[in-house]
């Protein structure tokens, strides 16, 4: 952890201490769950997508 903080200091990278978490076993980063198992999709994201209504028209299938 101290090596990472030293690199941030050397490169003049400012950390937002309210948003920073250190020494955690897992966390959500850019809507993906990061843990010792690797990168996984956040389960909450899957729940939201599964509850979306099915498209009924061709326009509903289009991705913007």
Automatic annotation (TrEMBL):
Q: Which InterPro entries match?
A: DNA/RNA_pol_sf, Rev_trsase/Diguanyl_cyclase
| Record keywords | DNA-directed DNA polymerase, Nucleotidyltransferase, Transferase
MF annotations from Gene Ontology: DNA-directed DNA polymerase activity
Q: What is this protein called?
A: DNA-directed DNA polymerase
Please report the organism this UniProt entry assigns to the protein.
Tanacetum cinerariifolium (Dalmatian daisy)
